[in-house]
Amino acid sequence: MTADPRALAELLEESQDLHADAMRPTHETLDELVERSHSSRDDDLRSNLDFHEDHARGLRQTFGGATLLGAAGGAALVGVLASAASASSSKDAQVLQTAASIENLAVATYKTALTLPYIGGATANGVVTKFAQVTMGQHAQHADAFNSAIASLGGKPQHKPDPAFVPVVNKAVKSLSGATAAQGALGVVGLALELENIAAETYVKDTTLVRSISNKALFASIMGIEAQHVAVLLAVQALLKADAPQLISLSEPATLEALPASAGNVGFPNAFYQTSNAAPAKQGAVK
Questions:
Q1: Which has more pLDDT, 217 or 174?
Q2: Rounded to an integer, what distance in angstroms lies between the CA atom of residue 27 and that of residue 36?
Q3: Virtual torsion, Cα 62, 63, 66, 69, nearest 10 deg
Q4: Which residue, of 65, 95, 196, 197, is most buried by count of CB atoms within 10 Å of its CB?
Q5: What pTM does this model have?
Q6: How far apart are CA 120 and CA 132, in angstroms?
Q7: 47-83 confidence digits (pLDDT tens)
């Protein structure tokens, strides 16, 4: 269950290169987002009404279809969140606040996971530990970028996690108490996988909520990073479910021959990302 430091370094370098490529145009596109928002009439009644109606539909779809939310008593939360329709921030700022709240939640989840012995402890799989550490750092950078743009729009930066998912994450973490190493690792990977997928789906949907091509590229580029996280976690989850944690390794060529046939495609189950579990645009907005 050890990892070849050289192979692991190469894998993480590739991940960081993808992250850097995606973040490079971020500040430019966020600046344009700010400029376009300032030049638009955010107080237009018809526009705000349309946005609220879209938000309400999104809430109903999310709470009706998401696995996480189904376990959290989604119907009660729909009424609470849908009632908070009026906000002082612009529509663009609300989209960015929600994005930041998702990133904050991811950071907190990985930080907690790394305190668990089977994720961040001395006996944990080195590949899984390093993945969690690097991924947590990437999410923190995404949150900083989103909050920078929010501040430029005159809105309040979002430093809190997405309120709809916090109770579910807390419940999931609490359920790991007393779990075996195998059960705990599988539970953490499953939770992280669902949160990463929600982030990816949300940013896919966000590309339809902004107008310019460059702004669409912003969310699409960060979505690509989240999609990479999903692919890695799907592969890890498959090996844990197959009771083969020793194959989560980069150390020996023999590992490749031992992998199950599904390992070649398990990380890419869909040709196109769905958006049924995407967070509504205003779900994480600062009230």
A1: 174
A2: 14
A3: 130
A4: 95
A5: 0.71
A6: 8
A7: 444 544 554 454 444 434 433 333 333 333 333 333 3
